[in-house]
Amino acid sequence: MAEFTNPLDRWEARFSSENYLFGEEPNQFLKDQKAYFKNGHALAIADGEGRNSVWLAKLGLEVDAFDFSQAAIQKAHNLAQKNHVSINFTCSSWQDFSWESEKFDYVVGIFFQFANPEKRLKIFQKMIQSLKIGGLLIIQGYGKDQLIYKTGGPGELDHLYDESLMRDLLPNFEFLELKTYEATISEGTGHVGLSSLVGVVAKKLA
Asked: Cβ distance 69 to 12 under 8 Å?
C-alpha cells in the first residue's frame, strides 16, 4: 500500500471489483484477540471493504469505520447489511476524519501501511488521542522481512514495522501483545502467502 501519484484512483479501481479484495472474513490476528473485546466503542481505521469492522460489530460493539474509497465504503455497507449489523461508516481520508479526543475503547488498524514515517507518526498521534485511557490499540502490519516474501503490502522498507518502532510510537502504553512472526495468510486475492507480520495489542496508560 505504497504512496502513488494518485492513490485514490488506484484503490477505487481495486475496490470496484465485484469480489472482496481482501475477502469477507476478518484479519486472523484481529480474530485471535477476541478475548480482549468487551462492551464498548471501536474505531476501525482505513477499513476498506468492511471485513474487520463487521466482525467487531458482530461481537456486539458499537463501531465506527472509515476509508477514503467510496467503492470500498459501498461494499462495506453491503457486507454489514449481509451480516445484519449496523456500523457508522465514513468515506474520509485519515487527515479529514473527525478524530474526537478519548472517544473509543478500541482502535483497530489492520495493514494501513500506506504512509511514510512522517505521516505515520501523525496517524498514530491521532489514534492515540482518540483512544480512552485504559483503551486498547490493536494493530497488524507487515514486518521488515516482507520485502523478501513480497506477498502483499508496501515495497518500501520505511513503511514496514518492527517491535522497536511500535515501542517508540507508543511510549505511554502497556504491551499486552507484541510479536514478530511468520505466517501463511489468505485474505482474498490481496494478501496471499507466507508473510512477515507484526502484531500489537497495547493498553493506553495516560
From this structure: yes
Grid coordinates 494501513 are at which residue?
112
CATH for 7-204 (1.10.730.10, 3.30.1490.270, 3.50.50.60, 3.40.50.150): 3.40.50.150
Q: pLDDT tens digits, residue range 63-112? A: 999 999 999 999 999 999 999 999 999 999 999 999 999 999 999 999 99
Per residue, the 3-state secondary structure of 75-137, as one string, reads HHHHHHHHCCCCCEEEECCCCCCCCCCCCEEEEEEECCCCCCHHHHHHHHHHHHHHEEEEEEE
CA-to-CA dists, residue 35 to 38, 39, 59, 89, 201, angstroms: 8, 11, 10, 25, 12
Report domain extents, the chain.
7-204
- Residue 62's SS3 state is strand
How many beta carbons lie within 10 A of that of residue 16, not counting itself? 14
- pTM for this model (two decimals): 0.92
Burial 89-105 (b: 16+ CB within 10 A, else e): bebeebeebebeeebbb
